[in-house]
């Protein structure tokens, strides 16, 4: 059964099955937008905490780390609560859209990228920040300079966030609704096809997810090697 | 005029610096001498605005970015030596090409295109001093500027210090290589 499933999965991928391709598109579209948006906010926020240690830094860093471990389905529930008809943002009618998935994945990515930015800058050589400041950089410019020094660690944070969002299921099903050719992602396709007993069809997105895991692992290892040099 | 009065810096129970009084006139050249742990680096950090005094007062410090501290263990950013020296130039909107002139002052033009991480300790020191001078500081604070330098490097730094016209504070365990400084002894 496994061998038959694998053959069918490769056939689906090779023949460019529309549903599989659309699931790849939805997964990529939502993930990329979510992590780019999260990066814009989380990188400066985490770096500000790490470098300038404002009030309640430890509490904020703890909350960031806590956010990394919140189950995706719980994040999905929170976003569902916000977007459902009686929720705070219910009037926007966003439930079961790609934007709803993006909002959920933003919340998944934010603590990962923010934590990495915080850890990387807090562990950076303090003389780097002081050198930038003493040479006339503003706090914001000095922060950008230090971020450039620790960019490999930040890139690793983006990779981790990408991996979590691309393969997550909780948000995609809870607020995406798993709607065919609209909000169905690779992970939610796997679950749906399995529940229908279509092992081979379920395996195709599974193989794509595994291939992505391989690419991300190799990239992360290369970044780690580059960091050591 | 920089005026330091009854300056004390403590880290917990440890007294890092005790200095009853110090006046530094604009353009003056001061050498701070003393053994390890006497507070030379702490004094420079106070003057650079990176260390708050525990007690006492420091008046007349220039605004941030006008007092440039060259650390005892200098840090170079990613990139080449020339890119490092052009950092303060870019911040001021000055042409980055001036970086080569500052490197030339430190007899370090040959290092211009070298990656910072490939430089030796002495080469790094010459580049960070060139970078500090490129910031055109009102006050230049040098923490052990002759450490790790060979004779050629010492001569280059001495020449650059001589050419610098602002207020200068040099800290070192002994000031054998520094000339023409009013000596403040912290021992």
Explain this structure to me?
The complex is a heterodimer of chains A (229) and B (187). Chain A has 229 residues and is mostly helical. Chain A has a domain at 26-184: Orthogonal Bundle (MetI-like fold), CATH 1.10.3720.10. Helices cover 78% and strands 0% of the residues of chain A. Chain A is built from eleven helices and no strands. The longest helix of chain A is centred in the N-terminal third of the chain and has 35 residues, at 18-52. The mean pLDDT of chain A is 92. Chain B has 187 residues and is of the alpha/beta class. Chain B has a single domain (2-185), classed as Rossmann fold (3-Layer(aba) Sandwich). Helix content of chain B is 30%, strand content 27%. Chain B is built from five helices and eight strands, in the order E-E-E-H-E-E-H-H-H-E-H-E-E. Chain B has a five-stranded parallel sheet with strand order 5-6-7-3-8, sandwiched between helices. In chain B, a hairpin with a 2-residue loop joins strand 1 (2-11) and strand 2 (14-24). The longest helix of chain B is centred in the C-terminal third of the chain and has 14 residues, at 121-134.
Please render the helix and strand layout as text.
The complex is a heterodimer of chains A (229) and B (187).
Chain A: H1 2-14, H2 18-52, H3 57-69, H4 72-83, H5 98-122, H6 126-134, H7 139-149, H8 151-166, H9 170-174, H10 186-195, H11 199-228
Helix pairs in contact in A: 1-11, 2-5, 2-8, 3-5, 4-5, 5-8, 6-7, 8-11, 10-11
Chain B: E1 2-11, E2 14-24, E3 29-33, H1 40-48, E4 55-59, E5 67-70, H2 81-92, H3 98-105, H4 121-134, E6 139-143, H5 151-163, E7 167-172, E8 182-185
Parallel strand pairs in B: 3-7, 3-8, 5-6, 6-7
Antiparallel strand pairs in B: 1-2, 1-4
Low-confidence stretches of chain A: none
How would you classify the helix and strand content of chain B by structural class? alpha/beta
Strand order of the largest sheet of chain B: 5-6-7-3-8
Q: What would CATH call the class of the domain at 26-184 in chain A?
A: Mainly Alpha
Domain count of chain B: 1
**Assembly type:** heterodimer
């Amino acid at each position: 059964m496994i061998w038959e499933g694998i053959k069918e999965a490769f056939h689906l991928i090779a023949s460019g099955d529309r549903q599989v391709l659309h699931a790849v598109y939805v997964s990529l579209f939502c993930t990329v937008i979510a992590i780019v948006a999260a990066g814009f906010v989380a990188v400066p926020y985490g770096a500000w905490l790490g470098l300038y240690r404002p009030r309640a830094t430890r509490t904020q860093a703890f909350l960031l780390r806590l956010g990394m471990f919140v189950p995706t389905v719980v994040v999905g529930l929170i976003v569902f609560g916000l977007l459902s008809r009686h929720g705070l943002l219910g009037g926007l009618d966003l439930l079961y859209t790609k934007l709803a998935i993006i909002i959920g994945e933003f919340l998944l990515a934010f603590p990962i990228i923010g934590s990495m930015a915080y850890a990387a800058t807090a562990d950076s050589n303090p003389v780097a920040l002081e050198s930038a400041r003493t040479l006339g950089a503003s706090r914001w410019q000095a922060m950008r300079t230090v971020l450039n020094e620790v960019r490999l660690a930040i890139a690793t944070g983006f990779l981790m966030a990408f991996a979590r969002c691309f393969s997550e299921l909780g948000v995609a099903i809870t607020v995406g609704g798993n709607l065919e050719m609209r909000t169905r992602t690779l992970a939610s396709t796997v679950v749906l096809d399995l529940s229908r007993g279509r092992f081979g069809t379920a395996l195709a997105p599974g193989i794509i997810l595994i291939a992505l895991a391989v690419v991300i692992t190799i990239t992360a290892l290369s970044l780690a090697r580059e960091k050591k040099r | 005029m920089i005026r330091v009065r009854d300056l004390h810096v403590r880290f917990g129970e440890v007294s890092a610096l005790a200095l009853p009084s110090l006046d530094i006139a604009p353009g003056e050249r001061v050498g701070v001498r003393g053994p390890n742990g006497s507070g030379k680096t702490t004094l420079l950090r106070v003057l650079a605005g990176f260390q708050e005094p525990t007690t006492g007062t420091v008046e007349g410090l220039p605004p941030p970015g006008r007092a440039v501290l060259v650390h005892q263990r200098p840090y170079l950013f990613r990139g080449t030596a020339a890119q490092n020296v052009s950092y303060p130039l870019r911040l001021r909107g000055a042409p980055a090409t001036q970086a080569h002139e500052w490197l030339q002052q430190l007899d370090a033009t040959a290092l211009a295109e070298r990656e910072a991480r490939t430089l030796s300790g002495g080469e790094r020191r010459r580049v960070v001093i060139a970078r500090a001078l490129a910031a055109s500081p009102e006050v230049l604070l040098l923490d052990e500027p002759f450490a790790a330098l060979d004779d050629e490097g010492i001569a280059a730094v001495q020449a650059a210090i001589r050419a610098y016209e602002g207020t200068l504070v040099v800290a070192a365990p002994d000031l054998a290589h520094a000339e023409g400084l009013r000596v403040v002894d912290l021992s």
